[in-house]
Write a structure and sequence with these properties.
Number of strands of chain A: 16
Helix content of chain A: 10-25%
Number of helices of chain A: 4
Structural class of chain B: alpha/beta
Strand content of chain A: 25-35%
CATH architecture of the largest domain in chain A: 3-Layer(aba) Sandwich
Largest sheet of chain B: 8 strands, parallel, barrel
Largest interface: B-C, 45 and 45 residues
Distance between the termini of chain A: 36 Å
Number of domains of chain B: 1
CATH topology of chain B: TIM Barrel
Strand content of chain B: 15-25%
Bound molecules: flavin-adenine dinucleotide, flavin mononucleotide, FE2/S2 (inorganic) cluster
Number of strands of chain B: 16
Oligomer: heterotetramer
Chain lengths: 252, 306, 306, 252
């Protein structure tokens, strides 16, 4: 059941260049799965008007974590929220990552704040699945951002474009050459990265991507978030945000 | 009779709170949040004869206290609508108004014919589509066209017909007269305003079609002005729509002359807004009837001025 | 030549940032906050031939991201304006545009005659007043009237004449053509939109005159739409005005086709906004010239679409 | 010189029925006088759009106090501000109360949050002037609201309409019968109260009132705040907010 919960800020730290880690304390909502997202209200008044979609970065009982980058007015307002301030959060929304089987080998590839849903995924399946995690940033991020991913992955590689953390370069330069050895490949990040990644995998049905599109509502009533699939229109908030590599087309 | 009840034309609404076309899906999605039978009614997403994919992204853009949208009437088309949505709609115990759109006159009529036998309260004509036969001008800005389409739909459907006006029409009152002459039961003021946003980083229009539909709190004073003007003409009941986000907005519309209101963009921010407004209406109208207060601001104004 | 410089008609502006009529007094008040000579220019509060007391309170009301005003052209009248304000205005080293309003045609001409000898850059015709001779309709919605008044003022004053349009006109492009034919040097898009607010507690209109002028961020997408449309006609330089509160808004206007912009209501929130926008313009246009980017979104759009 | 200072909330307490006492810490601005007001920005985004006029309740070096009542959206937002949040404040604005002479006998009459500018006045002249202070509220207010007034007045009377504090009734029922004994009479409050008070004074030029009107700017550029005086239009933000009893007319 989707709920509109009121979260109290208990942490809203700058953890990188314009990147923030937010933790909200609220009531415990049942059945929240990795890959799902929330719509965060950024203010009580009517400017800005819409809520902002954010992946769930981590969930710990009644605590919900979000990792976000300040890109515009809404995220700027979010970054100003202080402890004890309240934020309304509609969740859980969207589908989720596929169920992972015991002992599967899963390649996880994340770019920037796109690691948010991946973090939840790895945290969720940490005891059962073998994760090989590759994440890249444009510049420095502090350890809280990737601590879980590092701890719960068999292999963990981090890179940054300016070399300020991990290897220097884009993360796709560091992922394994042979992608056939993985049972599943799960990724989230800039669309350019996703596009290149999917290209490199032969069996597109082993790839799962979390996509973004501008959203009005987040629960299927406005039809803003449409993307074109092969033969039909898909809505990121309803049929997604997680799509199988076979569903997505990358022209334009 | 309950205080919230509103009668317009041949329909009875248990309260004046409706949800607007294109902002509540086909009812099902909102019904997950609350029982939509508690509403006065709602209007389905506009359907067209054939399925439409809609416009390429971006389809929505935020402005100050308002949004611009360019959905492009994405919908499954009449056939699938009848198969997949109608059974749910027919089981509801509130007013379901089906919104119809088309690029050719004949499309409106064919849809109307197909809806004749359905258990729905009526239809709302969305005339804010470009008329492909008529050179791409909107149907809704041409009073002859409005009259012609409305008349024929009224005949074909045998149910109440509402016409949703576009604020782009140059003379709103003329259009309302046309609807009245053609047998429409109410006018809905308004569909979205034409607006533009420029992506200053890319230095080009945000939307592929340049202009987009502007809605949200920002448009409220503009729509209220026309509700007032149309009410003064005493032609047809008015359904007010534009920028409602709170109960005081609802009151402004009713006092200015709207018999019913439709909630649009606000559903995106708060899926429960319809239910909440109904609750507030119950409280506010404990001792007075909505029907007695429609347009009350006109009377009060005249009393003060005289 | 500095990158911010904009020439329109016979005038040179050191930058495209102006303040709008009625929102910056007669310059003196804002000059207490910063040196207004740093602006591209500003437009004085509209003056009328005779002093006007303006409307009774309330004169201002807030809506969502916008305001409604019903000031009623309160001003000291031409004579006092010439005595009390002109000496200050004539000493300024930026463009001073004097806004003229009237309820009879002859009032415009008489004011123009009186301003002929003054050291000002030009005048802006505020045609959003009801024409008392013509039955109370706004001058600005009638293209013949616009042409007639503009032509005569151009002749009387011997200085650049701008015409400020009202969005209530039914065909904006027609009005721009009229201004061009009459010898106007630019059009200002727009004066305020007609809006209504109901005081729901008192159950009557907020304002004594029922309708009021709507401005602020809420109107921006509506005005931008017309800036785009008028620019496409390639008739006259456009001065954009409506809802500007940030530098990205200024860019949206310039890219959509405005040569200059005017800041209105935003001065009320932040008296330093003019100075701040000029500073941001200096930074943004370090390597490019404003003049080369006016209307650039049209070019970019066409390139993508072809 | 009018400045736009950024104040940090260091106190924002509920001190009565919908009444709050706000203290902002900011830079010290020169020459702020009793009767002047400030325009408080209630949010960084554009809804609500305008600032809100508030009288200065007290000024203590770099601390500015405001006493306000929650009546609409803006004051509601103000009441939600927590410690350390920032509020932009344009001040000082408007004229001020007349200079008070040493040992003058001054009657001070305040209604509701209208006591705000009076508090500043009494605090400012406390060592030199004999104040006789009468203030009324509709319901209970806590002591912080009138502490200064009580302490620095020769005579101090408080009343409330519901009797929950001080005498029960409207404050005009308790002010001295003979108003001729006072050198000046200074008042602020609901216009009905001001009207009745002025009526009771013979020499209207000994009465000074602080008035309110809806404001767009607060510094004279929008002409929203006009009130009609005998022969001309006055602007509350420029020629006021303090007016002499001779200037004001009370028809309508
Ligand atoms: C399912 C989903 C999950 C997301 N998860 C995260 C996350 O975990 N961390 C994170 O930093 N970002 C995430 N995003 C992107 C994030 O929603 C946008 O960056 C954010 O909405 C920008 O808001 P703004 O007001 O700062 O930007 P503005 O550009 O001022 O926003 C204006 C409008 O555009 C929308 N918008 C702008 N950019 C995007 C975008 N990329 N995607 C969707 N809507 C956008 C906004 O929601 C808003 O309605 C996610 C997006 C989606 C669709
Ligand atoms: C010079 C001056 C000093 C004031 N000092 C105080 C004070 O010390 N304490 C206090 O509680 N109130 C004071 N007021 C009144 C206070 O400004 C309003 O109560 C407040 O602006 C209401 O804002 P809102 O958003 O809550 O109400 P809304 O009704 O939502 O406000 C909508 C708009 O109307 C304006 N407005 C509403 N009521 C008034 C009013 N009475 N006067 C002026 N503008 C109004 C608002 O500023 C805003 O622009 C003062 C007013 C003036 C003019
Ligand atoms: C995303 C979106 C989609 C819409 N789709 C339709 C539609 O299909 N048919 C229609 O008649 N109106 C449509 N509208 C217009 C609304 O029904 C309503 O008239 C308008 O948004 C003004 O109301 P509001 O300000 O409350 O949103 C749409 C509006 C939005 C924002
Ligand atoms: C309080 C107020 C007074 C105004 N007075 C005038 C005026 O005297 N003459 C005029 O041409 N426009 C006047 N305007 C209109 C503005 O100049 C401007 O066109 C309009 O407000 C839109 O710009 P904005 O959205 O930036 O405020 C006034 C606007 C406001 C808000
Ligand atoms: S965001 Fe509204 S339908 Fe997907
Ligand atoms: S409030 Fe703007 S002039 Fe007084």
């Amino acid at each position: 059941m989707v709920k509109d919960i009121t979260g109290k800020v208990i942490l809203n730290n700058n953890v990188g260049n314009n990147i923030f880690l937010l933790c909200l304390e609220a009531e415990e909502v049942e059945e929240v799965y990795p890959g799902q997202f929330a719509m965060l209200s950024v203010g009580d008044e009517y400017d800005p008007f819409l809520r902002r979609p954010m992946s769930i970065f981590k969930r710990d009982k009644n605590r919900y974590y979000f990792l976000y980058q300040v890109v515009g007015r809404g995220t700027h307002l979010l970054s100003k929220k202080r402890n004890k301030e309240e934020i309304k959060v509609l969740l859980p929304l969207g589908n989720s990552f596929p169920n992972l089987n015991k002992k599967e080998n899963v390649l996880v590839v994340g770019g920037g704040v796109g690691i948010a849903p991946l973090n939840f995924l790895v945290d969720y399946y940490k005891d059962q699945v073998n994760f090989y995690t590759f994440i890249g940033f444009s510049s420095f991020v502090s350890e809280e951002v990737y601590l879980d991913l590092k701890k719960y992955s068999r292999e963990f590689v981090i890179s940054s474009e300016d070399g300020s953390i991990g290897y220097k370069g884009k993360i796709l330069d560091f992922i394994p050459k042979d992608l056939n050895t993985f049972d599943k490949i799960i990724s989230c990040g800039p669309s350019q990265m996703l596009k290149l990644l999917v290209k490199r995998v032969e069996d597109k049905d082993r790839v799962y991507l979390s996509l973004e599109e501008r959203m009005g509502c987040g629960f299927g009533i406005c039809l803003s978030c449409a993307i074109k699939s092969k033969d039909k229109v898909l809505h990121v908030c309803k049929e997604g945000p997680v799509f199988c590599g076979t569903e997505v087309i990358w022209d334009e | 009779m309950n205080n919230l009840e509103v009668r317009i034309g041949s329909l009875i609404f248990k309260n004046p709170i409706l949800l607007a076309s294109g902002t509540c899906g086909n009812g099902r999605e909102i019904n997950k949040f609350y029982d939509i039978n508690g509403l006065g009614g709602f209007v389905t997403k506009s359907i067209t004869l054939n399925p439409r994919e809609g416009n390429p992204p971006p389809r929505i853009w935020e402005s100050y206290a308002g949004i611009l949208n360019s959905i492009g009437l994405e919908n499954v088309g009449l056939q699938k609508f009848l198969e997949e949505e109608m059974p749910f709609l027919e089981r509801l115990s509130t007013n379901v108004i089906v919104s119809i759109a088309g690029e050719k006159k004949e499309e409106y009529y064919e849809i109307a014919r197909n809806l004749r036998g359905c258990k729905i309260s009526g239809v709302e004509l969305n005339l804010s589509c470009p008329n492909v036969e008529g050179g791409g001008m909107l149907f809704g800005i041409d009073k002859e066209m409005v009259k012609e389409i409305t008349k024929k739909v009224v005949k074909e459907i045998g149910k109440p017909v509402w016409v949703k006006l576009t604020p782009q029409a140059k003379d709103i009152v003329e259009i309302v007269k046309a609807v009245k002459d053609a047998g429409g039961e109410a006018v809905v003021l308004f569909n979205t305003f034409l607006g533009l946003a420029i992506d200053w980083k890319k230095r080009k229009p945000v939307f592929k079609r340049i202009f987009a539909g502007y809605s949200g709190p920002a448009v409220k004073p503009l729509v209220l002005r026309y509700v007032w003007e149309v009410y003064e003409e005493n032609l047809l009941p008015i359904v007010g729509c534009g920028g409602i986000v709170s109960f005081s907005d609802v009151l402004e519309y009713i006092f200015a002359g709207a018999s019913l209101v439709q909630i649009g963009s606000a559903n995106f921010r708060d899926p429960w807004i319809g239910e909440r407004l109904v609750k507030e209406a119950f409280k506010y109208f404990e001792k007075e009837r909505v029907m007695d207060l429609i347009g009350i601001a006109h009377k009060n104004y005249k009393e003060v001025e005289e």
